[in-house]
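[Q] Does anyone have a clean structure-token version of this?
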Amino acid sequence: MAVQLPGLFMERMKELLGTEYDQFVDTYKQSPYGGIRVNTLKITVDELRGRSPFGLEPIPWCPTGFYTGEGARPGKHPYYHAGLYYIQEPSAMAPVELLGVQPGDRVLDLCAAPGGKSTQIAAKLQGEGMLVTNDLHPERTKALAKNLELYGVRNGIVLNESPERIAAAFPGFFDRILIDAPCSGEGMFRKDEDMVKQWEPETPAKYAGMQREILAAAAAALKPGGTVVYSTCTFALEENEEMIDGFLSGHPQFSLVPVGGSGSFAAGLGPLPGAARLWPHKVKGEGHFMAVLRHDGSPDIAGEADIEARADLIEAKADLIEARADFKEAKTDFKEAPVSVSPRNWDTRSASPAKASAGRADSGRAGKGGRGLGKTGAAAGRQVQGTGEEASLAVYAGFIQELLGKLPAGYPIWFGDHLYISPLPREALDGLKTIRPGWYVGHMKSGRFIPGHPLATALHPAESSRSVSLSSASGEAVSYLKGETLSIPEERLSIKAGHASKGYMLVCIDGFSAGWGKWQDGMLKNEYPAGWRWT
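[A] Here you go.
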């Protein structure tokens, strides 16, 4: 056997699997399967299949997922750096497919780092609605935020909070919640031998306590009629079927949606055949467990205060629509552009000024990762009368109007000199540790607006007044990704009518946005962030 497995683990698996045990054991002599998932925020499935430099085999449970085959190196191609696909273990693509996300939904990914499932959710939202993505570990949120930026997510918020505090801030708010729960990781033993070394007989019971708390928080944050998908990458009954059975017993307003026993999904064990399992000896992937939980649509018995809080959220949604309309008017009257809008009663959510300040500090540090550019055009460079955020917002609006022709919809939120466009007002995030309050679009420096790298990665070439496409085949795309200055003749530039060639370019790879550059007299100055460069 290639992987040395704990004896107590093997005894338990033999009891669970019976006559299938030998088939299961044989999988540990095989190599894990590799996969990618197409980022449909940037490219269609058919287009990527036509362009892919390596062979692709469809993954049965994910229409945007493909096996890449042994020896493929998808992370070493410029398309990976352009965010056209996410490298992901095939079984890990299944939970989001069961969540049923639709454009316009409000979705919470509670245990999200490093962000594979969050980017999958974002692709299904197609820029509509919102994604609140969270991880309890501060270091892990760095990778989470970077992946959302690389894959061009405009409507995502990144938090570093406990599930209980999120539920307290957003009671009954989300249409769909994903819990990719922390677990003992038994299903990943073939793929990650470190998981084997960390496993002990009491490990499943240790994780089960955390999982119960996360499920309870999700139940409080879900709106009536909403859906929760609970998933793990482990085989232990106490983390899977027993966990869900206990949750349903304590939450009669929820029911299990049967998905096990259909397609590639094996039935759950014991009293929950409607839950689903992916077994490595039955599918081309690692071990996974999933349960789809549906709220029955009636409010929880939580008292009048909870019902009133949900009514406040409806009012806040109306205010959001009004705020977006007001912000749109800033295109013609920059001085009157709103700084932020305070929906009624958001301040009833126990927001603490001290914690809010801490959240702003976190976001300010995170924002420094956005590589900047200088001014674009006279409108962006002029000094605007006014003070503080109002003047900064006017400069931003002038810059974006010249570069893109319109302002992105959403709430402008300043963290120091850094600007984000958020699907929620600042007041909704007060008291929460916020890593990214929304789409990072840039920062102010010496009275000018400097666009950030995540602004570029989320744009389509047609949205920018100036763009240039580099070839992945010729090597110039790799040169750009390494931070090199390039010689690009003017005839290769795509310039909209009324705009000069000189200025800041949206740099694309084979037509897909990758970052910024500054063009002048045949030279493209590289603005690709140092921390993102090809190594």
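[Q] Thanks! Anything notable?
[A] Residues 304-328 form the longest helix (25 residues).
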